[in-house]
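ARCHIVE RECORD
Type: protein–small molecule complex
Small molecule: adenosine-5-diphosphoribose
Source of inputs: curated submission
Record status: active
Notes field left blank by submitter.
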Amino acid sequence: MNCFTRLYKRVVVLTGAGVSTASGLPTYRGQGGLWSDPETARFTSPRAFVKDPDGAWKFWSTLREHCLKAVPNPGHLALSDWGRKLNCREDRKFTLITQNVDGLHERAGSHDVITMHGSILHSRCSNDTCTLEVFQDRELFFNGAPRCPECKSVLRPDVVLFDEAIPAKAEWLVRQALRSCDLFIAVGTSGTVSPAAGFVNSAKYVGATTLLVNLEPMESVNKAFDLELLGKAELLLPRLEAEFFYKQVMFSGDLPPASTDREEYAHQRFNMALSPEEQAAREAHTELLGGLDSVRYADPQFDAWVHRYYAVVCAQQYLNQCRRKYLTEAELEAVSSDDGL
Ligand code: APR
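STRUCTURE (tokenized, with ligand):
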């Protein structure tokens, strides 16, 4: 895919309903979308809890039930892994912002998720002056709306509905993250609802690389996206994550310059039966580099990269062995022509 062309240290990812479809949850728009049914679209407004609280709770309880039964998919898990790997380093930051209310990012292990539109797995009092705190609520109310224990007003799910403001804290955290990001990825969102639809513009304004990962093109194309990757988030996100970290190694300054007297590569020994070529490469490696016992790295891609790295900078014999094994046809032709071979 080759999406990442430099080292990125401050990554912001925005997700929408499309990241949860593989977990069996519906989107809001498009075919089968929640809002495509006029009967349910009326529950997108807070007024529904005044006009028809029982009907509203029947709708939201159905969605809460689906969310409770849903499980995180490979897209959620890739984002959780991505965040964990980046946030464990002082000089890196991964921020996950979601428009979804299904709680699947948290259940996939993501931390500090900015839930812009709240969570269906929490409830609060519909009376804004009431002192009742937001609380975790997995109850289903198909036979009548629940009442606030404090003021007897109708309770409601702690989600942001149309004509309601994004919680101030979430808005502040989003601004903070967008102000300094160098990579912005929007995943599974139609880009039709503000303020989320404009986040990519803010990211572009500060010079970030911007990527859209979506099943279909946005209806109104936002030119602030540098790249558009069309496909299923659950398939693309794991590959994007792998490429991101592979490139981190390629572009990061952490690797010492390739010279024959420095052996600072942390190896992880694997009891892998080496092919005859690998054995030969290891012997050439060891012979050439005086004891750097070249074992396999934990990440096969990184292992191949290390051998290519040596192949391009070390002795002809080792060079040819590794070139045949690790370089692509095009790279092989390029380096051979350089050598005049
Ligand atoms: N992988 C990637 N994208 C997908 C997938 C998938 N497997 N399945 C669907 N999509 C895409 C659809 O093509 C669509 O563009 O996800 C997008 C979902 O768009 P919406 O249904 O509009 O959902 P979203 O963008 O999250 O809506 C934003 O609107 O109604 C409000 O509060 C609600 O948070 C919601 C907000």
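CURATOR ANNOTATION: The two ends are 31 Å apart (CA to CA).
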